[in-house]
């Protein structure tokens, strides 16, 4: 890259790059720049050593530490600026000058003469005019700087390495940033600066001429003549800090050695100083108790230490986020204010829009020609087998394999999912696109459908979950597992203490007719059915937005009423009203006292509702799920045969998806908390923390109920025992294990434990949310300011795979955050039993299985590119593993 005419202005410790226009300050340059001067030799241009020292001083003093976070060699960037020179014609239109006058005034209150200073204002009797040269180049006009100037040529990018530095600093990457500011904008900024300068000049002049003490109402009019605008490059040395997965940059200005960038704090030093300071204060005030679990010790010393250290750790990221948000608001305001627009910018944007319209017209024209050629072909052509446009919707050819179709669907579903958009208009467009994609995939996922799109209910030719054998195990083993946790876990232990003492006798007595009969609790069954009935009634009577679902392969679009969140708080309002009328909370103790009966009732209800749905799916007008029409009764009963079972407008699958499981989960948690209050006359902080975590999750799901319409549970899978048992039994009866355990084994967490568990949960949420947001932002706009620094691997398909920041640590770093949140749900229970950690274990296995499945699909989708990606990002979920 060559910049003709660029001049390097340098001194012993500073330099800048100056690009004069044709006659801009020619006399100044020739006056100071000797014709014999060849500038400093390339061996003397050594900027890295002293900038390294400045960087370390900036981050290595006091609470700052760069040695821990410094990553990689520095980068030398030439930053572009505009300088403006012109002849200024200024005229002083009006002004007032003030003279301070001392007067003696009698004060009747104090009965004394007092000295007062008044200002006598006078208008300036005449107008002044002056003309002189002004510009923003004055700061580099020094003779010493110009005498050492050298031509800016490509050779400067090939300077010898810094041999006396460490190996990582010897070869410095040098780049030149492009100009993002138009000259007209630079002139506008310069005019504002010159106006301010002239006002200061006029103020100083008036004070001197009229011997004035003050001035006011100074009004200046200026005219700029012979305006010249030229670019200047200032070198900056950039050091990168990898901090909590975010690359923070520190700039050292090569001209004046000023340093900029967010500092990183050494949180351990902050914690030590905070602990010492708080201990000193508490000791001096006599408010600290050093023995045992003294509340003043934990609240006065430990908690502030944890809070300050966490604040010190995350303050750089928080401040950067706030600064970015503030800058976005400024840019947004400037975009709407035409006062900030200039003709160059408007002209360039108009040209850009013309190019975009031309490209759009060209692509549409080519597509229409291609479509016409497809339409004129015979029935044996490829596109003739796609009359509904399903292959075209997924972007695959009619000869694509099932693996190609699955890969295309997963990629498009993640890219076009409505949940990724917050703007209502964009979300509406994404919903329409996602419906088309889902409808196309629901048709093409089966091999037989690929041969004929007219067949609505083809036979299922491929099994999932190990086929009929896996379905039989699913239907028999999982209900027994839920019963095991309910029967064999009690106040003696999780599992029961008697099982450890003599497990053979215990299980021989467990599997008897008498025990089986004891599982049937008519009262518990009545209560469970009443709860389901209340949810059904609320789904009918409560108002809610009616939202269309995805388009089905038979062309229908079903509508759903979004009143799940209203149902949630109405359930608790109605329950609170009944308890108020009863005058006691004792009815809520029914859950704990009849727990086994409630679990057995939910299992029995799951079997019955699944059998009913299986039998009604044989109606002639039923639309079947593509994966549930195998003809094997056990498999179809488990996987679900009918896609959208409805009784009138009541959609059974949509009702089952969120209401019985999630709302029942929180209702049971509240009942267990009341039981603990009944036993202890208080609720432990561990129980409160579990309630907070679970309720936050459920409220978030119900508040965004519309999102479930695009899940595979609604669009693809049938409603059978797998979904029915999972949502009527598995979720409410197993996800409450932590709350139930804390009833039998209550414990209070120390403030340190409380802070650590909260920190782990927020850390998991931060990893999960920031990683997903980063990927979504990169997919939407890779050139965005927040993600343009990310490194990526471009595949042959044109897809970009991120290989830095969060996604450079592992291929599924978001799974790690998700699992950390699951683990934090279990940690309040302590380590007395492994049973409360069943959710974390089960969820971890589920995530590992999902990662293996995604890896298989991506290997098919990307081929060799995926192998290359895996060689760069070696960790699957946990970084370093």
TrEMBL record:
Q: Does the keyword Membrane apply?
A: yes
Entry-linked SUPFAM superfamilies = Chaperone J-domain
Q: Sorted alphabetically, which keywords does the UniProt record give?
A: Lipid biosynthesis, Lipid metabolism, Membrane, NADP, Oxidoreductase, Steroid biosynthesis, Steroid metabolism, Sterol biosynthesis, Sterol metabolism, Transmembrane, Transmembrane helix
Q: Name any Gene Ontology BP term.
A: ergosterol biosynthetic process
What GO cellular-component annotations does this UniProt entry give?
endoplasmic reticulum membrane
**How is this protein situated with respect to the membrane?**
Multi-pass membrane protein
Q: Which InterPro entries match?
A: DnaJ_domain, ERG24_DHCR-like, J_dom_sf, Sterol_reductase_CS
Q: Where in the cell is it found?
A: Membrane
Q: Which Gene Ontology molecular-function terms are recorded? A: Delta14-sterol reductase activity
Q: Does the keyword Isomerase apply?
A: no
Residues passing through the membrane, by range: 270-291, 297-317, 469-494, 523-542, 563-583, 595-615, 683-699, 719-737, 749-768, 819-848
Q: Where is this region: Disordered?
A: 362-385
Pathway per its UniProt entry is: Steroid biosynthesis; zymosterol biosynthesis; zymosterol from lanosterol: step 2/6
The UniProt record lists the EC number as 1.3.1.70
Compositional bias ranges of the Low complexity kind: 366-378
Matches recorded under Pfam families: DnaJ, ERG4_ERG24
Matching entries from PROSITE patterns are given as: DNAJ_2, STEROL_REDUCT_1, STEROL_REDUCT_2
Q: Where is the J domain?
A: 389-467
* Protein family: Belongs to the ERG4/ERG24 family.
- What PANTHER family does its record include? DELTA(14)-STEROL REDUCTASE, DELTA(14)-STEROL REDUCTASE TM7SF2
Return the protein name: Delta(14)-sterol reductase ERG24
Q: What is the lineage of its organism?
A: Eukaryota, Fungi, Fungi incertae sedis, Mucoromycota, Mucoromycotina
């Amino acid at each position: 890259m060559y910049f003709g005419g660029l001049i390097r202005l340098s001194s012993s410790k500073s330099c800048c790059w100056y690009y004069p226009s044709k006659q801009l300050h020619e006399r100044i340059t020739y006056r100071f720049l000797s014709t014999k001067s060849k500038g400093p030799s390339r061996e003397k241009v050594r900027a890295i050593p002293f900038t390294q020292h400045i960087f370390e001083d900036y981050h290595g003093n006091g609470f700052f530490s760069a040695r821990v976070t410094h990553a990689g060699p520095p980068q030398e960037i030439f930053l572009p600026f505009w300088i403006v020179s012109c002849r200024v014609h200024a005229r002083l239109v009006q002004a007032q000058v003030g003279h301070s006058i001392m007067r003696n005034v009698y004060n009747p209150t104090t009965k004394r003469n007092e000295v007062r200073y008044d200002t006598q204002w006078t208008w300036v009797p005449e107008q002044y005019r002056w003309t002189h040269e002004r510009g923003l180049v004055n700061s580099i006009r020094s003779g010493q700087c110009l005498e050492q100037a050298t031509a800016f040529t490509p050779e400067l990018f090939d300077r010898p390495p810094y041999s006396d530095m460490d190996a990582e600093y010897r070869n410095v990457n040098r780049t030149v940033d492009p100009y993002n500011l138009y000259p007209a904008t630079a002139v506008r900024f310069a005019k504002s600066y010159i106006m301010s300068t002239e006002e200061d000049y006029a103020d100083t002049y008036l004070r001197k001429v009229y011997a004035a003490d003050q001035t006011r109402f100074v009004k200046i009019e200026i005219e700029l003549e012979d305006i010249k605008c030229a670019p200047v490059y200032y070198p900056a040395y950039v050091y990168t800090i990898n901090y909590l997965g975010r690359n923070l940059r520190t700039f050292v200005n090569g001209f004046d050695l000023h340093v900029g960038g967010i500092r990183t704090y050494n949180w351990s030093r902050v914690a030590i100083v905070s602990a010492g300071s708080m201990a000193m204060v508490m000791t001096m005030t006599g408010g600290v108790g050093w023995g045992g679990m003294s509340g003043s010790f934990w609240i006065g010393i430990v908690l502030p230490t944890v809070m300050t250290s966490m604040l010190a750790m995350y303050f750089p990221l928080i401040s950067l986020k706030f600064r970015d948000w503030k800058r976005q608001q400024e840019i947004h305001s400037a975009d709407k204010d035409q006062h900030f627009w200039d003709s160059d910018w408007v002209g360039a944007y108009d040209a850009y829009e013309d190019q975009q319209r031309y490209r759009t017209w060209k692509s549409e024209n080519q597509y229409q020609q291609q479509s016409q050629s497809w339409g004129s072909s015979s029935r044996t052509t490829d596109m003739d087998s796609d009359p509904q446009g399903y292959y075209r919707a997924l972007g695959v050819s009619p000869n694509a394999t099932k693996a190609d179709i699955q890969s295309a669907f997963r990629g498009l579903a993640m890219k076009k999912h409505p949940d990724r958009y917050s703007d209502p208009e964009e979300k509406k467009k994404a919903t329409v696109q996602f419906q088309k994609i889902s409808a196309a995939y629901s048709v093409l996922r089966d091999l037989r459908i690929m041969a004929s799109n007219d067949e609505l209910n083809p036979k299922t030719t491929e099994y999932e979950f190990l086929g009929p054998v896996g379905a039989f195990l699913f239907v028999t083993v999982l209900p027994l597992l839920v019963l095991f946790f309910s029967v064999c876990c009690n106040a003696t232990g999780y599992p029961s203490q008697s099982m450890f003492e003599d497990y053979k006798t215990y299980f021989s007595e467990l599997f008897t007719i008498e025990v089986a009969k004891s599982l049937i609790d008519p009262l518990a069954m009545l209560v469970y059915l009443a709860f389901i009935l209340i949810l059904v009634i609320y789904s009918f009577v409560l108002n809610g937005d009616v939202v269309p679902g995805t388009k089905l392969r038979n062309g229908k679009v079903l509508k759903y009423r979004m009143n799940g969140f209203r149902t949630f708080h109405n359930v608790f309002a109605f329950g609170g009203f009944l308890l108020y009328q009863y005058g006691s909370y004792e009815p809520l103790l029914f859950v704990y006292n009849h727990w086994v009966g409630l679990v057995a009732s939910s299992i029995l209800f799951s079997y019955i509702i699944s059998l009913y749905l299986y039998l009604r799916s044989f109606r002639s007008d039923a639309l079947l799920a593509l994966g549930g029409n195998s003809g094997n009764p056990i498999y179809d009963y488990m996987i679900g045969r009918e896609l959208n079972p409805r009784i009138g407008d009541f959609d059974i699958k949509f009702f089952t998806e969120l209401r019985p499981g999630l709302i029942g989960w929180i209702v049971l948690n509240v009942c267990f908390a009341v039981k603990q209050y009944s036993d202890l006359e208080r609720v432990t902080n561990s129980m409160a923390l579990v309630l907070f975590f679970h309720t936050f999750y459920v409220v978030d799901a119900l508040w965004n109920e519309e999102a479930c319409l695009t899940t595979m549970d609604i669009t693809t899978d049938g409603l059978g025992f797998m979904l029915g048992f999972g949502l009527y039994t598995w979720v409410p009866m197993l996800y409450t294990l932590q709350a139930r355990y804390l009833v039998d084994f209550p414990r209070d967490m120390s403030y340190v434990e409380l802070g650590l568990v909260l920190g782990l949960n927020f850390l998991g949420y931060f990893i999960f949310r920031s990683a997903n947001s980063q990927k979504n932002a990169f997919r939407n706009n890779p050139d965005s300011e927040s993600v343009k620094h990310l490194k990526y691997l471009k595949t042959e398909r044109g897809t970009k795979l991120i290989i830095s920041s969060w996604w450079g640590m592992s291929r599924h770093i978001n799974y790690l955050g998700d699992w950390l949140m699951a683990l934090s749900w279990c940690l309040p229970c302590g380590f007395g039993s492994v049973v409360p950690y069943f959710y974390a274990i089960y969820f971890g296995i589920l995530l590992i299985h999902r990662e293996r499945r995604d890896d298989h699909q991506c290997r098919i989708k990307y081929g060799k590119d995926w192998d290359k990606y895996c060689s760069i990002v070696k960790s699957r979920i946990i970084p370093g593993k």
